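Input record, target 12 of the design panel.
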């Protein structure tokens, strides 16, 4: 549905996005995750035709955004980071105006607004001036204008930014509901947002792709911790012989149990085989548990790798 290919965007000398490629399939909810200034908004502005790419292509439903911006915008509902709302207007006035600006024919405007209002739970606010709405409800108005023309794709830039915890939960529920019929890409720097809403995450660091994977894969561990009681012999050697285990490290000792970390091949769950080996060896087992990293840990590891690769690159450049 969305295809980003070797995208680059420069602002003068600053390269905000570099060689970025990823795909979003129909029906997915994908999170674009990155620190402040990582390039998320830039990617979304290029995707929605508000900025020209320096190089590379973005296609939505097979339409290239640089060839047919209007054709792309027809398929997209966009909620910018600071959605421009007109505070003095009533909610229904604003939505009817947006329906007109979107080119929805006059006879279809009221049904389109009614559907968007229903989907976003704005029924009771229709004749309220936008300036008197809470931030959460203003965000609903932003979402309602984004779905007026029943787009196939929703592009949401930091949709819960600045909301209180209750509003955040409400907007996330709303996004999940909208995603039942629409492909969604949303940007955020909030890790819990990704975990709460998305199927897949594209991680940007300094404008470069650092990861593109399902949450399940990103959070799957390749480490199994094995605690064994006193008297267990040859533990590292026995663990290293288990299929799928690449190496074994001693973690420490506590209350008569020694804990070992078995580092396994990525994608291999060696836990059952480790348990069998431990039983066969007759060890007293304190616990055999696969480690589950948090998304925060995954993100920190990616940042650390990015920084060390950048440093190594600079050293190479200096030496050349
Ligand atoms: P945030 O989470 O803070 O919104 P972001 O990940 O959305 O950040 P961008 O807004 O895309 O990041 O910015 C990426 C980089 O490009 C930043 O260094 C930013 O300062 C720079 N930048 C963005 N817009 C412009 C512009 N119009 N002119 C010059 N530099 C810009």
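The sequence produced for target 12 reads:
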């Amino acid at each position: 549905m969305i295809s980003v290919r070797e995208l680059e965007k420069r602002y003068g000398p600053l390269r905000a996005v570099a060689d970025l490629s990823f795909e979003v399939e129909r029906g997915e909810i994908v999170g674009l995750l990155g620190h402040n200034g990582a390039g998320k908004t830039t990617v979304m502005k290029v995707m929605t035709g508000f900025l020209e790419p320096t190089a590379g292509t973005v296609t939505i439903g097979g339409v290239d955004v640089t060839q047919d911006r209007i054709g792309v915008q027809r398929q997209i509902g966009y909620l910018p980071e600071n959605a421009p709302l007109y505070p003095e207007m009533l909610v229904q006035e604003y939505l009817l105006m947006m329906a007109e600006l979107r080119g929805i024919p006059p006879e279809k405007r009221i049904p389109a607004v009614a559907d968007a209002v229903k989907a976003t739970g704005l029924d009771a606010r229709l004749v309220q001036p936008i300036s008197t709405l809470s931030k959460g409800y203003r965000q609903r108005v932003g979402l309602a204008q984004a779905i007026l023309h029943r787009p196939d794709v929703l592009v949401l830039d930091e949709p819960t930014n600045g909301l209180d915890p209750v509003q955040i939960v409400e907007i996330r529920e709303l996004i999940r509901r909208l995603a039942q019929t629409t492909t969604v890409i949303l940007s955020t720097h909030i890790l819990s947002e990704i975990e709460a809403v998305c199927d897949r995450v594209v991680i940007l660091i300094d404008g470069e792709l650092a990861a593109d994977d399902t949450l399940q894969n990103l959070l799957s561990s390749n480490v199994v911790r094995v605690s064994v009681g006193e008297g267990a012999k040859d533990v590292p050697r026995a663990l290293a012989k288990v299929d799928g285990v690449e190496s074994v490290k001693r973690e420490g000792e506590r209350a008569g149990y020694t804990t070992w970390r078995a580092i396994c091949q990525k994608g291999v769950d060696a836990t059952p085989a480790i348990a069998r080996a431990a039983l066969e060896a007759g060890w007293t087992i304190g616990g055999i548990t696969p480690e589950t990293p948090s998304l925060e840990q995954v993100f920190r590891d990616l940042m650390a790798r990015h920084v060390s690769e950048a440093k190594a690159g600079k050293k190479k450049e200096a030496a050349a």
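The domain at 223-290 is CATH 3.30.70.3190 (Alpha-Beta Plaits).
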